[in-house]
Amino acid sequence: MTNKNSFENLGVGIGLRVDHYPEIFTSKPNIDFFEIISENFMVDGGLPLFNLNRILEQYRVVLHGVSLSIGSSDPLDFDYLARLKKLTKITKTPWFSDHLCWSSIGGKYSHDLLPLPYTEKIADYIAEKARIVQDYIELPFGLENLSSYVSFKNSEMPEWEFYKRVVEKADCFMMLDVNNIFVSSVNHEYDPHDYLKDLPYDRVLQMHVAGHTKKDNGTLLDTHNNYVCEEVWELYRYVYEKTGGVSTLLEWDDDFISFPETHSEALKAKNYQVIGNE
Fold this sequence. Notes:
36% of the residues lie in helices and 19% in strands. It has helices at residues 21-27, 47-56, 78-91, 120-137, 159-170, 178-188, 192-196, 230-243, 259-267, and strands at residues 12-15, 33-37, 60-64, 96-99, 102-105, 108-114, 141-144, 173-177, 204-210, 213-214, 220-221, 248-251.
């Protein structure tokens, strides 16, 4: 049975990247929406906001952050949150998201998305911070699952139970990345459908798909520089049906191909958008 997801389905979008600006501004392609990296536009003026306003004249935009570091032992940075809230007003984003990770300590940033031990104490700690963030920004807040390459001996539950506990306790939402699920399932040798079978699909506000890289030793890296593989598309098909239809975003962040090729890759999602009968 599919869920009747309460979030607006914006369609199929692409991550907005500078490499594609010439094509976008010249051709004004017909695309459902763009997702921006929040931190790139959390400024008071200049070229970033000038270009963002050009995009907003024609397209819907949603915000996706990389520096909230909600799993850090550091307290929440309300200067950061104030700038983020200002950007949500400019873009009129229907929701905002960031990662279920930590990336800073003592105010020093690693510029990477680092995993956490899956314990009840940490889940409760992050859930309380997520609740505060969502209340402060006054928009639905989605946490994205990571791809991971290490595990922790002191974890008390699998990742999917940890993820579910955080969002339900915080009463926030999921930015579900099905490529990350596949990457981690290969790296940690579990069935990705074990991850998916009991998720609260009514809390999925958006999905990400992306390509990855396979190393010689079989490890998968979430590089966002390749075409989406068939296994990820099949996981996407499964989740899309479970949600009853949800906004979909292709991430392509390195080794860029042309904008038309990128858009074509994103639109492959429509071939897997099946909604079953209730």
